[in-house]
Amino acid sequence: METNELPESNKLQKIVREILEKKYADVCSPEYNNLVVKSFKNENVKLRELKYIKVKPIQNEIPKIAEDLKISLVINDKHDIHHVNERGYVEAPVRIKSILKEIEPTGLFKSVAPKNYPLKHILSVHDEKYVKYLEKVCQNVPANKSIYPYVFPIRNAARPPIDLPVRAGYYCLDTFTPLNQNAFLAARRAVDCVLTATDELLAGNNLTYALIRPPGHHAEHKAFGGFCYFNSNAIAAQYLVKHGKVSILDIDYHHGNGSENIFYERSDVQTISIHGHPKFAYPYFSGFEDEKGSGEGEGFNINYALKEKIDGLEYRTYLKKAIQNIKDYKPRFLVLALGLDPAKGDPTGTWSLSANDFEENGILLGKLKIPTVVVQEGGYKVRSLGINARRFFQGLWKGFNEK
Question: What is the pTM of this model?
């Protein structure tokens, strides 16, 4: 039978009866089933047009470019060891595959193998006790198991619980970021990738991309949360700042609370975040516009907390403001926390940015012409994730190399 042909009436009726009896037996009586089945006759049924057809995406034409103009791509080769097979856990390995499938054919990227870096770079932004705890607790979690924080000792934080799993709440922001045998290892390898991409920047490559998971921008000086364990953006900024001022621009749907927390009292790293307002978006307790930094850092932390429903055009009015903030600051380097969760239909967001919007955003950021390391953060709608990433980088490359 051809795919555009209907089966005979008797076969149609058999299919309908199977559905009614197996799926709706508890709500449909046999008499009702007989009535519905008899109504299905070949001449009364029409095929609807196919809705989900996999069509090879149309690639925007990119001219063949020299190797030194390509974006250095560093992929976390150990990201998939951190795989939480639990219902509703959206931070999954398929995210990386979805992005790679779309960006690799563009010819924009050159692959760079991640190098190993000492722990001191993580300790440059994170509390030593926190890092040691994370390493130790992950080593002791049974294979294929995850533990979640459930006790939060805010009343007597000076005396953390002795039991390691119970102590998780002493260092965590929420109840849904798991600790497992591979969380520390995957997060540390993500840092290796970001530092490799950062070294590519220092070697003269103007655009670099660390395609990593787990993400990092919610990790604070001594706390994990929001699927994040080590703040790769902050580590990259700290690594770069000895060479000149750095701006961190966070364009994830959720507030970059970790970067704000780490640099809140410093002026050598500017932190800007465009995100859903904390009255409805994670992490709920930070990201308000009156959080401007303190002490030496006053005025160097900027939050754009946006309303619940917003399209790409309105979003760009705030992106342009953030870009002007960066221009005024005059950094030598830009660390871009790339969240693709502002996309329409993302399960963790409420905005409606399209693939074209991501390309337009990329063009605007590329026109800054500041050496930029892009660090992958959120983005969980797998069907559009890769397309949005591809369009963003096509725009970023175009904007940066525009004469």
Answer: 0.83
Pairing state between β 146-147 and 179-180: antiparallel
Could you tell me if 170 and 160 are in contact, meaning their C-beta atoms sit under 8 angstroms apart? yes
Q: Which residues pair with 304 in a beta bridge?
A: 274
What residue ranges in 313-370 does DSSP mark as E strands?
A: 333-338
What tens digit of pLDDT does each residue of 138-194 get? 999 888 888 888 888 765 667 777 777 777 888 899 988 999 999 999 999 999 999
Residues 111, 4 share a domain: no
Residue 183 inside a domain? The answer is no
Q: Can you give the residue range of the structural domain that contains 20? A: 1-53
Q: Which of 12, 31, 53 is the last residue of a domain?
A: 53
26 occurs within a structural domain: yes
Q: Which of 200, 227, 217 is nearest to 92 (CA)?
A: 227
- The closest alpha carbon to 206, from 402, 387, 34, belongs to 402
Computed over every residue of the chain, the mean pLDDT equals 90
Q: Does 80 lie in the same domain as 49?
A: no
Task: Please write the tens of the pLDDT for every residue from 106-115.
Answer: 999 999 999 9
Number of neighbours of residue 334 by Cβ within 10 angstroms = 23
Query: Which sequence positions are flagged as catalytic?
Result: 218
In a domain, 350, yes or no: yes
Distance, in Å, from the CA atom of 342 to the CA atom of 340, rounded to the nearest integer, reads 6
